[in-house]
Design brief:
Helix content is 43%, strand content 9%. It is mainly alpha-helical. The chain has one domain. It is globular, with a radius of gyration of 15 Å.
């Protein structure tokens, strides 16, 4: 039986789980407050670039914000990642 798109996405995301947890641990171990997430932003941009994404920095006038794009077509997925730490 042919694998559904939903099943393909599930398998793909499961294959990224360990890597995502590792990235999360790196961000957590070097917590940065809002608008100063330079190390975390660089890490995430690097990871997207490793996977072939085109990364555009400075979204919305923020030096730590970025847009990562890959592929083309009508189907698109958007992620908004919040990873700033609270002061104190």
């Amino acid at each position: 039986m042919a694998e559904s798109t939903k099943d393909k996405v599930k398998v793909y995301l499961e294959s990224l789980a360990d890597r995502a947890v590792g990235i999360s641990h790196q961000i957590h171990s070097h917590a940065e407050v809002g608008f100063e997430e330079f190390r975390s932003s660089a890490l995430l941009k690097s990871e997207f670039e490793k996977d072939g994404f085109d990364v555009e920095s400075g979204s919305a006038g923020l030096p730590t914000a970025f847009v990562a794009k890959k592929g083309s077509g009508e189907l698109q997925v958007g992620l908004c990642l919040e990873y700033d730490a609270l002061p104190g």
